[in-house]
Amino acid sequence: MVAESFCQNHQNDVEEEEKKVVEAPFILGLQPSALVDNVAHVDLSLLDRIPGERGGSIPVAIEELEHILREVKSNSNSSDDDNSHSSSVMKTMAGGSVANTIRGLSSGFGISSGIIGACGDDEQGQLFVNNMSSNGVDLSRLRKKKGHTAQ
């Protein structure tokens, strides 16, 4: 009787574990550090005052990023005054080639996709998580770390 009870309990445990198993995404992308893209329509003169090449990408310290974003906002505000740009609002979204591809596969094609990596516990990290999850990307393998995202 004890053996039957043990076997039945063990069988129930196995069935419960099987229910907990979640199927892995069909495609997993590896992006060790979450990245965030800030996209804005700005006057070309601004690009001469900030580091990097037009159309390029470079890693910057958080202080430099904050300086660049202030410059972009200032430029956007002055552009609004002369109505030279109808779309001067900055857009911020999860970025990096892997994240962009995974997000596109998930939202555009309905392909089960996930990302492996880490993001910071800051506002940029939360933006990355919100943007990717709202597009159906599995984030069960994304880890949060203390500090800034992509630093």
TrEMBL record:
- Is-annotated flag, keyword Chloroplast? no
Coiled-coil blocks: none
Could you cite one Gene Ontology molecular function of this protein? kinase activity
The cross-references to Gene3D superfamilies, in alphabetical order and at most eight, read: 3.40.1190.20
Residue intervals of the Carbohydrate kinase PfkB domain:
71-148
A Pfam family assignment? PfkB
Record key words, sorted: Kinase, Transferase
- Protein family (similarity comment): Belongs to the carbohydrate kinase PfkB family.
Name by which UniProt lists this protein: PfkB family carbohydrate kinase
Organism from which the protein derives: Trifolium pratense
Lineage of source species: Eukaryota, Viridiplantae, Streptophyta, Embryophyta, Tracheophyta
